[in-house]
Fold:
Amino acid sequence: MALENPSPLGLLAPVPGSARRRAVNRAVEIACTLAAVLAVAVLLLVVISVFIKGAPAISWKFLTSNPQTSTLNFGVNSGGIANSIVGSAILIGLASAMAVPVGILVAIYTSEFAGPRSSSGIRFALDVLNGVPTIVTGVFVYGVLVVGAHQSGWAGAIALAIVELPIVARSSQEVLVLVPRTLHEAGLALGLKRWRVVVSIVLPTALGGLITGAVLGVARVAGETAPLIFTSSIFSNLGLTTNPAQAMPNIPVTLFSLSESASPQDHAQAWASALVLIAFVLILSILARAFHARSMAKLSH
Amino acid sequence: MSTSSAAPRGPFRLRASLADRIGEPSLRTLTAVSALGVVLLILWIAETVVNQSSTAVSQLGIGFLGHQVWDPNHNIFGALDFILGTLVSSFIALLIATPTAIAISIYLTELAPRAIRRPVAILVELLAAIPSVILGLWGLLVLGPFLTNHLEPFLKSFLAWTGIFNGTPSPVGMLNAALILTIMALPIVTAITREVFETTPRDLKEAAYAMGATRTEMIRMVVLPLARPGLVGAVILGVGRAIGEAIAVTQVIGNASQFQASLFAPSGTLAAQIASEFQGANPGLWQSSLMYLALILLVISLVVNILGRLMVRRTAVH
Structure:
């Protein structure tokens, strides 16, 4: 071979250009790591901004009293957001009372009764429903329930339920699929009918995963604003309402209108409301995610 | 079947079979009706939006899509600028989010120490848990001033010639909206990309390493080509998220009904326009035109989501 190899290592020497290749590799690795750092940094930046700017306005009074506005202080709210907290709790409660059972029923249908074709069809339909922009969901409920009538807590809750339904159904499907086939078959072999297998074996086994999946749905829907601005945003009074037949004040819509205002006092209140909302959503998501991973892992082996 | 030998169990069996006779069909029907309900709900949503927009559709026709002016005071309505605003804001968002998501997914599947993979993945996913109205508030009051005072003058200083980084820096506008949408699309694109990368067969990766490939070369030769359809699907689903976002965009885009080439200028999108004007729109052509915008938005997002799901599914199969 006429190949000239100046290296004392002979054929074991690095291939020409390997220094460049290693440098490229290093650069790509660093860039990828930086991207991950950047994403986490953005999350922290937003969360920390909300905490720093929201904390000063948080007080017992803010959490437990209703908004107090008067022309004396130019319509600026000197009270709190108790009415929105209560309203949000009721809206989310009603929405989940509708979406969670129906979502689990849909999941049971696809995992227990439907054939493979219709099962993947339903799964697809859920993904499509999940892809409907939430503002369109709001407009839909407005068109069906608010036109010709008036805004109400019910309309808001139904709009939220439509957003929540595909999330709960999809996560429930993923959990139900993990219930071991052998448990099913054992039940069927004992002469149990399918419904009995579902009620006595599948659901109890999957319970943990179903609950945490539902909680993730709640966390997602708690911050939804778009479905509510046409359905539960015009409040006749600023007092505490527990009647879903009327429009109910709620944190997302309150926060939205405070953020649209130009006054710094309103912005302070907006940050404080954001702190209440983000704390609720993040705590719920983190807890649910931790338990969800655990119960999924338990199921799958 | 020896029924006679089971005489003492008779009553039990009768009770059980009665429960079975009611329970079995009712659970089957109940679940089937719920599942059918999902499909009907989608059709009902489409039907309602079509119905509510019928006044505008019949008066303005398909020309609405190509008409630029939106002037409720003179009853002139056109959707073109909002369609452009929607496309441009989502395009920029995905232009930034896609490479970032791929990089994060490579980090999470190939580089990160095993112990921190899950925590980092969860943190990135938590980005999607931040309510959009809070992201909008942050965009308006934190990101906006930063853009006006620092980023936009900086970009303008050497990119003004492009025409898109020109004009007066402003806290609200297209750039702010696009960045907020980037933050919203990033976790979705990352989640799918990561899942797709995780399906890369181990032996192919090892084959590449055995041939002396560096990690970067292995990713370029094995991971990325195999993941291509899934990546496209992930990007499309990210677009779906960005197109449909109304609240955060309406908070930071400035809600102008005119589209301008400058990214600093206020603009509007389909979703944001509905969110900002629907309350104040009087019933009639104005409200119906907003419903027409909702119809366009619904059609675009249905097409985008169906396409994206099909692409992601195709990769999941292999």
Observations:
- Chain A touches chain B through 92 residues (CB under 8 Å).
- Chain A has a mean pLDDT of 87.
